[in-house]
């Protein structure tokens, strides 16, 4: 029974933080690292037009080409034990990370046993600390050979992904939670519709191929892992947005329905029967007004994204219809001076708690992110970490908000106010 006064979370609730390989490990050689090399100058130049004056003033590093090279990232590949010690000390009992496919299969069909062993050790390090691993198989970059084969546009990737998933499931039987794909539709639309991420295409047909191949790849990987470990819990990390119809006007409600169907529901429905859990990432709330967004933006993150703490609860309420356990796989904000993180996190969790009380089966929450990291085409200036990283010395500094979150993780409840 949940005691409402105390805002206690259900027993066994999983608390933690998330990262992804390319964003924290350092020294990855994949299609992204190649793309970075070819685009740094342009990205540094475009900062002038892409970001608001207050962002430009606060983060002058966005004008430096070096900001856009992932390089050593947070050196987490070498420091994961130390980083997990920090997470453990902050009361985390789970952790989400991703395996870097290009390390595992640097050449077609040639699997690197040393790298497989590395990730086995990462999982063991988490288990030793009593932290439940959530393992993502693909968080966006591809091995170079695979990108050269056409990446997600080519049907052949389905078989490659299935083989890779099978290999990892056999190699690391200690993993219970597998997340096959991270935010497939975010990747597909940035890389194949908007053309701002590798391979920078703007082609609707290509986009359709990509998204369909992602659906098939997930299903194949699901079946392959399930055959090896029938008890494992498999899902994707789905990017969902809370769309709201401005003033409940008919046209806005209709547009909201279309947006929900296209963005929030299509992929999940396509993989029906091939998921045991729903992993969800939420960052956005969009108020729809005749096809435009009309957010109030009372508070914003350093990315100039609205901070709307009710959003996460709305998103999970909507997901309850699938009748599967829900895990928050990502939720967080870029906040370099840590002036908004504690407020945003606590308020969001209050709303999440209400949704759980209403019966929404949320079983865990991993905050994005454990560490400051490489934010894709934006580079290093956005600071998403509970833990600050000094990129020169690689020193870690725990932010104040991380301690506030630790209190929640350790007590499994929110202080009632
Ligand atoms: C991605 C992360 C990213 C975060 C913040 C999510 O869409 O999965 O890789 O860092 O958003 O932008």
Protein model, in words:
The strands form 3 sheets. An 8-stranded parallel beta barrel has the order 1-2-3-4-5-7-10-11, surrounded by 5 helices. The chain has a 3-stranded mixed beta sheet with strand order 6-8-9. The radius of gyration is 20 Å and the shape is globular. It has helices at 21-24, 31-50, 53-58, 76-89, 101-104, 113-128, 144-148, 156-171, 184-192, 204-228, 250-270, 311-319, 341-357, 400-411, and strands spanning 14-18, 94-98, 132-138, 177-182, 233-239, 242-245, 278-281, 285-289, 292-293, 326-330, 362-368, 387-389, 396-398. By secondary structure, it is an alpha/beta fold. Helix content is 43%, strand content 15%. The longest helix has 25 residues, at 204-228. The chain binds beta-D-glucopyranose (BGC). Beta-D-glucopyranose is lined by residues 20, 23, 182-183, 186, 239, 281, 330, 368, 375.
In round numbers, the mean pLDDT is 97
Structural class: alpha/beta
Query: What is the spatial order of strands in the main beta sheet?
Result: 1-2-3-4-5-7-10-11
Number of contiguous helices: 14
Q: Tell me the major beta sheet.
A: 8 strands, parallel, barrel
- Give the % helix: 40-55%
Query: Cα distance, first to last residue?
Result: 20 Å
**Distinct small-molecule ligands in the complex:** beta-D-glucopyranose
- Poorly predicted ranges: none
Instruction: Count every beta strand, where a strand is a DSSP E run of 2 or more residues.
Output: 13
CA radius of gyration is 20 Å
What shape does the CA trace take?
A: globular
Helix-strand pattern? EHHHHEHHEHHEHHEEHEEEHEHEEEH
């Amino acid at each position: 029974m949940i005691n409402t006064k105390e805002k206690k979370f259900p027993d066994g609730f999983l608390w933690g933080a998330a990262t992804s390989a390319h964003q924290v490990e350092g020294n990855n050689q994949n299609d992204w690292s190649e793309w970075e090399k070819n685009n740094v100058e342009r990205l540094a130049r475009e900062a002038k037009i892409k970001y608001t004056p207050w962002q430009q003033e606060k983060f002058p590093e966005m004008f430096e080409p070096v900001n856009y090279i992932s390089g050593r990232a947070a050196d987490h590949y070498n420091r994961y034990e130390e980083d997990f010690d920090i997470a453990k000390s902050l009361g985390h009992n789970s952790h989400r990370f991703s395996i870097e496919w290009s390390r595992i299969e640097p050449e077609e069909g040639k699997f690197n046993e040393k790298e497989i062993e590395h990730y086995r050790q990462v999982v063991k390090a988490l288990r030793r600390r009593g932290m439940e691993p959530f393992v993502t198989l693909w968080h966006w970059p591809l091995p170079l050979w695979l990108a050269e084969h056409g990446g997600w546009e080519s049907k052949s990737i389905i078989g490659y992904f299935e083989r890779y998933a099978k290999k990892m499931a056999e190699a690391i039987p200690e993993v219970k939670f597998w997340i096959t794909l991270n935010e497939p539709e975010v990747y597909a639309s940035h890389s194949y519709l908007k053309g701002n991420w590798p391979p920078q295409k703007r082609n609707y047909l290509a986009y359709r191929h990509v998204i369909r191949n992602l659906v098939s790849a997930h299903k194949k990987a699901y079946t392959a892992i399930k055959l090896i470990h029938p008890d494992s819990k498999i899902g994707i990390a789905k990017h969902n947005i809370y769309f709201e119809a401005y003033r409940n006007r008919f046209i806005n409600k209709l547009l909201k329905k279309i947006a929900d169907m296209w963005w929030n529901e299509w992929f999940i429905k396509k993989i029906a029967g091939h998921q045991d859990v729903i992993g969800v990432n939420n960052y956005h709330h969009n108020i729809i007004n005749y096809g435009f967004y009309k957010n109030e933006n009372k508070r914003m993150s350093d990315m100039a994204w609205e901070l709307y703490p009710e959003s996460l609860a709305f998103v999970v309420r909507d997901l309850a219809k699938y009748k599967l356990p829900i895990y928050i796989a990502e939720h967080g904000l870029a906040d370099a001076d840590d002036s908004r993180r504690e407020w945003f996190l606590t308020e969001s969790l209050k709303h999440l708690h209400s949704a759980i009380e209403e019966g929404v089966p949320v079983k865990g929450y991993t905050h994005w992110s454990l560490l400051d990291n490489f934010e894709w085409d934006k580079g290093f200036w956005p600071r998403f970490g509970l833990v600050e990283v000094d990129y020169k010395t690689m020193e870690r500094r725990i932010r104040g908000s991380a301690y506030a979150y630790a209190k929640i993780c350790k007590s499994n409840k929110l202080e009632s106010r």
